[in-house]
Specification:
- By secondary structure, this protein is an alpha+beta fold.
- Among the domains are: 63-104, no CATH class; 330-450, Elongation Factor Tu (Ef-tu), domain 3; 460-552, Nucleotide-binding domain of ferredoxin-NADP reductase (FNR) module (Rossmann fold, 3-Layer(aba) Sandwich), CATH 3.40.50.
- The protein is 53% helix and 15% strand.
- The protein is built from 18 helices and 14 strands.
- The chain has helices at residues 3-18, 26-75, 84-90, 94-104, 131-149, 160-182, 190-194, 198-231, 233-243, 249-267, 270-275, 277-298, 305-331, 371-374, 424-434, 470-485, 510-517, 522-525; strands at residues 117-118, 124-126, 337-343, 347-353, 365-369, 378-382, 385-390, 409-419, 439-443, 445-450, 460-466, 493-500, 526-532, 548-552.
- The strands form four sheets. A five-stranded antiparallel sheet has the order 7-8-4-3-9. Strands 11-12-13-14 form a four-stranded parallel sheet.
- The protein is elongated and about 90 Å long.
- The relative contact order is 0.08.
- The structure holds flavin-adenine dinucleotide and 2-acetamido-2-deoxy-beta-D-glucopyranose (NAG).
- 2-acetamido-2-deoxy-beta-D-glucopyranose binds next to helix 2 and helix 6.
- Residues 274, 277, 365, 379-382, 416-419, 421-426, 468, 471 line the site of flavin-adenine dinucleotide.
- It is a multi-pass membrane protein.
- Its EC number is 1.16.1.9.
- The chain crosses the membrane at residues 45-63, 135-155, 167-186, 207-230, 250-268, 280-299.
- This is ferric-chelate reductase (NADPH).
Length: 558
């Protein structure tokens, strides 16, 4: 094709691109009404599917919650681990145990799902979803494919299926943007309602994102293919290219939208996310804003704009909640201060004096902003410890004991242990190391708390941690020892298994462990097994007592 031919074709196509369509025949109007209705119907089916899944999950969670409560009540103040009640609750229901083993908690294949897949030692391809998650995602995928094709007459001699499929994929892409935006937020109410972790929603967010991209591309493709099929290849292509100009808002914004969606897909593989998390996040948000604005303009005057509005509202509420929590927690009563102290073994201890603290519970994590180190970025960390003091008394901080258990307590300070990685955490470590005395004070903002669990209804609790993962377990250990001493839990045995590289990592939590080991009745319930994988000499490995034992290596000492 010579350039002149292209120009002629362009010129020939311009009237098509801008012309008002010829007035539709009654037959066409009837078809359009029918098509619009079936698209609305499909939106309803999707909404009902979501509602049914959420309802089923709610019933499941409430049942589990009730069972736990009963188990805890039945075992309060009842004997040892070999006590009849403890035994009764320790016998699992076989079917449920099987379901858990093979479906609910099962990895997809042999590999544990949280271990990353590596192509080589430098590249990881990400984590695989678990079996139940895979089932859900596959089901959702199949449902979307089905919704893209059902009720459309794929054999119509007038080729109406191009328009029908174009409209259908477009509607579904916009509809899926609602869960896409909702599940992206860490304040998504489904997290606490269904007791499903943000991690899982994040996984679903990524897969729904992929579905939206595919639907957007299909939407664009059906539009192009329709033009080509109806006008012939030459005119059709020319029409497509002439339409993609700023003065044709519908097509221009649609093109930008689809391109930004594809760009998001290309910049978000696990390798990129993990290697350049901060850059990934900023580009991701920028592209999402471009895509959303483009789609918004694309939908001007179309009823589907209200679906997009729903998605945008989900996002706006989440962001406002974050801001609200941030302001309330850190500016209520002075400003939150953090003391950052370098520790042996490439870690820092951050002690937070939060302006308006909350009731500390085991399993909580926060997002921390530290402008002097990380500007506006935030990073998630588990709360490893809280020092509490009675709210209405001037007494010095007491260790947790029976007396103050029921007193209203406010945390005077909360602490984090942060392992040095390569970005924000590395900067923080180096700053502390260079500061006088190995520590510095700075202003920090804490967003949270997020999440918490209780293991108090279980007779035997085994906690495993490797390295800095101990931050999540220490509060559970303290919680269970205190609850046991007060006769408030079903727990009779707690075993903490901690795998560390070198004994100097013990320093990270030494003061807290000393407190826990000194607690009332601790010996009756707590056992600690330490495995040191890279001791400098065997002399370093010695067991302080029978309830705290240290072994070299990975557990061959067991
Ligand atoms: C719920 C939760 C609790 C955590 N608790 C602790 C803890 O108690 N102690 C501890 O040392 N670490 C904890 N982490 C890990 C900690 O968040 C990361 O190590 C830290 O954000 C790395 O920052 P960096 O800039 O040095 O990362 P980099 O060295 O740039 O990257 C290291 C890894 O951290 C991930 N990462 C980087 N920034 C973020 C971010 N803003 N959000 C999420 N992931 C990120 C990257 O994907 C990468 O895999 C926790 C993480 C989560 C999700
Ligand atoms: C497709 O959607 C557009 C915009 O809502 C509408 O004008 C057109 O009639 C629809 N076509 C069909 C076949 O449903």
């Amino acid at each position: 094709m010579t350039p002149t031919t292209v120009l002629v074709l362009f010129a020939a196509a311009i009237p098509y691109a801008f012309a008002q369509d010829a007035p539709p025949t009654p037959e066409q109007i009837a078809h359009q009404t029918w098509a619009d209705n079936s698209n609305t119907q499909i939106c309803k089916y999707t909404a009902w599917t979501w509602a049914a899944i959420i309802a089923a999950m709610l019933v499941y969670r409430w049942t589990l919650h009730l069972l736990r409560h009963v188990r805890r009540l039945a075992n309060l103040n009842h004997g040892t681990t070999s006590d009849g009640r403890q035994k009764y609750f320790s016998i699992p229901n076989e079917n449920y145990a099987k379901a858990k083993r093979h479906l609910i908690s099962a990895p997809l294949f042999r590999k544990r799902h949280n271990r990353e897949f590596h192509l080589s030692s430098a590249m990881n391809v990400g984590t695989l979803p678990g079996r139940l998650q895979t089932l859900f995602l596959a089901g959702y995928f199949v449902m979307n494919i089905a919704f893209c094709v059902i009720t459309i007459n794929w054999h119509d001699s007038n080729k109406t299926y191009y328009d029908d499929a174009r409209n259908r994929t477009g509607v579904l892409a916009v509809l899926n943007m609602i869960p896409l935006f909702l599940l992206a937020g860490r304040n998504n109410p489904l997290i606490w309602m269904l007791d499903i972790s943000f991690d899982t929603y994040n996984l679903i967010h990524r897969w729904i994102g992929r579905i939206v991209v595919i639907e957007a591309v299909a939407h664009t493709t059906f539009w192009m293919a329709g033009k080509i099929a109806i006008m012939g290849p030459a005119k059709g292509w020319a029409m497509v290219t002439t339409a993609m100009v700023p003065s044709n808002q519908l097509i221009f914004t649609g093109t930008i939208g689809t391109c930004s969606f594809v760009a998001i897909l290309l910049q978000s593989p696990s390798i990129v996310r993990h290697a350049f998390y901060e850059t990934f996040l900023h580009v991701h948000i920028a592209l999402a804003i471009v895509a959303t604005s483009a789609v918004w303009m694309h939908l001007d005057t179309l009823p589907q704009q209200s679906l997009l509005l729903g998605a945008i509202i989900c996002w706006a509420i989440e962001r406002s909640l974050r801001l609200y929590r941030l302001v309330r927690t850190n500016l209520g009563n002075g400003v939150t201060k953090a003391e950052v102290e370098a520790l042996p073994g490439d870690a820092v201890r951050v002690t937070l004096r939060i302006a308006k603290p909350w009731k500390f519970q085991p399993g909580q994590h926060i997002y921390m902003y530290m402008p002097s180190v990380g500007l506006w970025t935030s990073h998630p960390f588990s709360l490893a410890w809280s020092d509490e003091q009675p709210a209405f008394s001037a007494e010095k901080t007491l260790p947790l004991s029976r007396q103050d258990l029921f007193a209203a307590r406010k945390s005077a300070s909360m602490s984090l242990i942060i392992r040095r990685r390569t970005g924000f955490t590395d900067k923080m470590y180096r700053k502390a190391e260079l500061a006088a005395g190995g520590k510095f004070m700075t202003t920090a903002f804490v967003e949270g708390p997020y999440g918490h669990q209780s293991f108090q209804s279980y007779g035997t609790v085994m906690l495993f941690a490797a390295g800095v993962g101990i931050t999540h377990q220490v509060p559970h250990v303290r919680d269970l020892v205190v609850a046991y001493a007060n006769g408030m839990c079903a727990t009779r045995k707690v075993t903490l298994v901690w795998i560390i590289q070198s004994p100097e990592h013990l320093e990270w939590i030494r003061p807290w462990m000393t407190q826990i080991l000194g607690m009332e009745k601790r010996r009756e319930i707590l056992r600690i097994l330490l495995f040191v994988t890279r001791p400098r000499s065997t002399k370093e490995i010695h067991s302080p007592s029978s309830s705290v034992q240290m072994f070299p290596g990975w557990g061959d000492g067991c």
